[in-house]
Write a structure and sequence with these properties.
Layout (H helix, E strand, L loop, with lengths): L2 H30 L4 H15 L5 H19 L3 H5 L2 H25 L4 H11 L4 H10 L6 H34 L3 H43 L1 H21 L4 H12 L5 H25 L3 H6 L1 H25 L4 H10 L5 H12 L5 H35 L10 H5 L22 E4 L3 H13 L3 E5 L2 H9 L3 E4 L5 H6 L7 E4 L4 H14 L4 E6 L2 H10 L3 E4 H20 L15
Parallel strand pairs: 1-2, 1-4, 2-3, 4-5, 5-6
Helix pairs in contact: 1-2, 1-12, 2-12, 2-17, 3-11, 3-12, 5-6, 5-8, 5-14, 6-8, 6-16, 8-9, 8-11, 8-15, 8-16, 9-10, 9-11, 10-11, 14-15, 14-17, 15-17, 16-17, 22-23
Length: about 575
């Protein structure tokens, strides 16, 4: 290794250390204020950039972070949520996105942006913060409400639309570049760019189809070897997809997102999501802090009025567009108001779109800084705005009329599952994932419990680390999920938050204790029955929240003693004790 390489590696380590320290301090401070950490990462990056000039290594760190961040987001997309009520949710997500872009594009042009840059900004405006909204709704226990589910569905549609947006940015960049020199060249560039995008989409589609055929079987085999092998292969798939999309002239982040979405359809999805959740959060912190690091604080201060006005305009555009789309598609005033207010901010995908647009030359550093600033303002305001959404919605419901075509809405007549009604909070949760029993570990003990529950007519779901067992149980029509019962994503997929009872039939005391602790946190009112080999581990399980514990060494001792006594009694009947003669001394 040369001296220059050693210095470069040392510089990257220092940059990464400073990024993580700044992100950690920011998250601690905002956590004290009950605010989301994401705007804190942006602010920390801006302040760090004002104190230290970022090195060229920051770009490499940011590229790696955005690739792995997008992979994690794609992996966490819920395909079942997309298919449930697909007609209504897709119509709402697509319609609101088109309206937002229609309003945002001319508004951006009023601020002096070229129409290609204005479209890029409009695409960023049309995105919402999935991370901040979901965390806020989960903390407020409002994700399972009718409007919470509608908001979640719209977020998924917006995330999927990012694929097309990231694919369009290179075309806009070529058009802008050619248009600056010659109009005829611009037209040629449009057709050339469109042809290249079509070819790129064809290549990516082939990659998706091939991955869909190969990856489920490959990851199932890898899971049988070890979880580490499965994680390594998944990371390799993410980087390979990023390399493929980069090679065809599109964003590597797009490839990573597609890879995550493909893996979201495999049986090992929940285990992967849980294993990668800490890394996803880590790279989210690195990405947002690195984005803030590239902001010129002095220039941003001089454009403070543009940032403030832009934040207000973006919020109004998003609220109005979402309200028009939801009300027009037949949603009630309450759902319309709540969804519109909840989804008023820009988010992580917005910054990814703007970051890629700036890298392609569509946006100047100043324009990127302004957008980062207004995004930070909107994210900081999100928890407070969501907090006042309910009273505002209640007042609007009393004074505003429902769409006159609500009862005859073509959407409602054609869609199998229309937009949820107010109070229809359980409609999207399958029956077997409510008031059921979660069986963690499907060995001989778990199977015996399942057989008894089946005879009694009690619904249950299965959590098991053997992928072959999971696939077999799924073929039998049972709700089986691959993964570790000490993994939050896995337990959530099995419906633990709506379970009446959790049976920990895991033949490993250490894993059982971890699972009991997590299960009690996620299901405070559920009965938890655990098996433990040793008495000390059984007592520890009770201390962690287990309602009942079956201790194998005690049960085994009792069973063995009973069998020994029964066998001895059958072989040699115990003679009666002779009675002393009458009158003899006893």
């Amino acid at each position: 290794m040369t001296l220059a390489q050693a210095q470069s590696g040392s510089g990257m380590a220092v940059d990464l250390l400073l990024l993580l320290m700044a992100a950690g301090i920011a998250s601690l401070l905002l956590g004290r204020l009950k605010l989301s950490a994401i705007p804190g990462y942006l602010i920390a990056g801006v302040l760090l950039g004002a104190m230290r000039t970022p090195t060229s290594d920051i770009g490499s760190i940011q590229q790696i972070a955005v690739v792995l961040l997008m992979f994690g987001i794609g992996l966490n997309l819920d395909r079942d949520a997309i298919t449930r009520g697909a007609g209504a949710i897709i119509a709402l997500g697509l319609g609101s996105t088109i309206l937002m872009m229609a309003f945002a594009t001319p508004t951006a042009m009023l601020f002096g942006l070229h129409w290609t840059a204005a479209i890029a900004i409009a695409m960023a405006v049309a995105q919402t913060s999935t991370a901040v909204v979901l965390r806020t709704l989960q903390a407020r226990r409002e994700l399972e409400t009718s409007w919470g589910r509608v908001s979640f569905g719209v977020l998924i549609v917006q995330d999927l639309l990012t694929i097309g947006m990231l694919a369009l940015i290179p075309v806009l960049a070529r058009v802008a570049s050619a248009g600056a020199t010659d109009e005829a060249a611009s037209q040629v560039s449009v057709w050339h760019g469109a042809g290249q995008v079509a070819a790129s989409i064809a290549i990516i589609t082939g990659f998706i189809l091939l991955s869909t055929l190969i990856l489920p079987r490959l990851l199932t085999i890898a899971a049988q070897v070890s979880t580490e092998v499965m994680l390594v292969i998944s990371a390799a798939v993410a980087l390979a997809a990023a390399a493929v999309t980069g090679a065809v002239g599109m964003s590597p982040a797009l490839g990573a997102f597609i890879a995550g979405f493909v893996l979201a359809g495999t049986p090992v999805r929940f285990e992967l999501a849980g294993q990668l959740a800490p890394l996803r959060d880590l790279f989210m912190a690195v990405f947002f802090t690195a984005v803030g690091l590239g902001v010129d604080l002095a220039a941003l201060a001089s454009d403070a009025w543009i940032v403030a006005i832009g934040a207000v305009l973006v919020a109004l555009i998003k609220i109005i567009s979402m309200a028009i789309a939801a009300w027009g598609l037949g949603a009630s005033i309450h759902i319309t108001a709540m969804t519109s207010i909840v989804l008023f901010q820009t988010g992580e995908f917005s910054l990814v779109v703007v970051n890629v647009a700036a890298a392609e030359g569509l946006l100047s550093p100043r324009q990127e800084s302004v957008f980062i600033g207004l995004t930070a303002l909107l994210l900081i305001a999100t928890p407070g705005v969501i907090g006042v959404a309910q009273p505002v919605s209640n007042k609007l419901s009393k004074v505003l009329p429902t769409a006159p075509w609500l009862a005859q809405s073509s959407l409602r007549m054609s869609s199998r599952q229309p937009l949820p009604e107010d109070g229809d909070d359980a409609a999207d949760t399958p029956q077997f994932l409510r008031d059921h029993v979660v069986i963690a570990g499907f060995g001989p003990v778990g199977r015996a419990v399942a057989d008894k529950l089946h005879v009694a007519g009690v619904p249950y779901s299965i959590v098991e680390l053997n992928p072959t067992t999971v696939m077999k149980q799924r073929r039998l029509g049972r709700a089986a999920f691959y993964g570790d019962a000490a993994n939050e994503e896995v337990l959530r997929s099995a419906g633990i938050e709506h379970a009446r009872c959790v049976v920990m039939a895991i033949p490993d005391d250490a894993a059982m204790l971890r699972a009991v602790r997590l299960a009690r946190q996620m299901a405070p009112r559920a009965m938890i029955v655990a098996r433990a080999f040793a008495t000390s581990r059984g007592l520890a399980a009770r201390g962690l929240g287990a309602t009942h514990v079956v201790i194998e060494e005690l049960v085994t001792a009792e069973a063995m003693a009973a069998q020994v006594l029964t066998r001895l009694a059958a072989m040699n009947p115990v003679p009666e004790t002779p009675q002393p003669p009458t009158g003899a001394p006893s």
